[in-house]
Amino acid sequence: xxxxxxxxxxxxxxxxxxxxxxxxxxxxxxxxxxxxxxxxxxxxxxxxxxxxxxxxxxxxxxxxxxxxxxxxxxxxxxxxxxxxxxxxxxxxxxxxxxxxxxxxxxxxxxxxxxxxxxxxxxxxxxxxxxxxxxxxxxxxxxxxxxxxxxxxxxxxxxxxxxxxxxxxxxxxxxxxxxxxxxxxxxxxxxxxxxxxxxxxxxxxxxxxxxxxxxxxxxxxxxxxxxxxxxxxxxxxxxxxxxxxxxxxxxxxxxxxxxxxxxxxxxxxxxxxxxxxxxxxxxxxxxxxx
Length: 289
Description:
By secondary structure, the chain is α/β, with parallel strands linked by helices. The protein has helices at 33-44, 56-70, 85-98, 129-151, 181-202, 222-226, 235-247, 272-286; strands spanning 24-27, 48-53, 75-79, 104-107, 155-160, 208-214, 255-258, 261-262. 41% of the residues lie in helices and 13% in strands. An eight-stranded mixed beta sheet has the order 3-2-1-4-5-6-7-8, with helices on both faces. α1 (33-44) packs across α7. It is globular. Residues 1-19 have low confidence and may be disordered.
């Protein structure tokens, strides 16, 4: 957690473009749903937005929407499949190459419970896909960008988690036995909250705040619809709750919110030993790069 990353892994490269004085915000998974709403809203409010997605066409559509809404080119597109940690590292490299400051990082990219045929998916290192996308990618990206976030302080990290949480079984964290997509999703979301608490404690005094939230229940997003669930709430509702953690003056650090209210996470999130085990697991998995 306190590693000093060098050699293109944390230091800004030479020959960077002229400094942009606008607030710079990176939102992962910003080509659809909550991320898209946030990207357009924040750019409309004057921020420079780094749009992240996997699909170039959809990312450019968001960039075009921002250009239409603002009359200016306030967004840049960054492409990466965050299920691949190698691409997460390349995403971090690109952010460091393009941005002289990073005021807000929103770890929003995620996938739901459904997988083709309900089968377990894992990469060549055995990392289960939901754990990789929903949690480990944000863990890796955040650590890679911490030097820039710290240099830009006061700055903020917002982890978009979920009220759906389930304790991690450290005996089989990748769910190689008795796989269930719902469990994979809920433990990955709890991991985000545990990471939030851990990192907020480590960053005390740096000017970097870290919070997590469940933005709204079953928002009208592609993820929810693909899961066969009728939406319960709007993207705007979740967007406003997330925006509060990005811009609010009273949100503090190391907190978990359900919408706009501070809430209690799964009890494992408050277990220091469990958080240590998650940190060690995360360091082990990312060290395989």
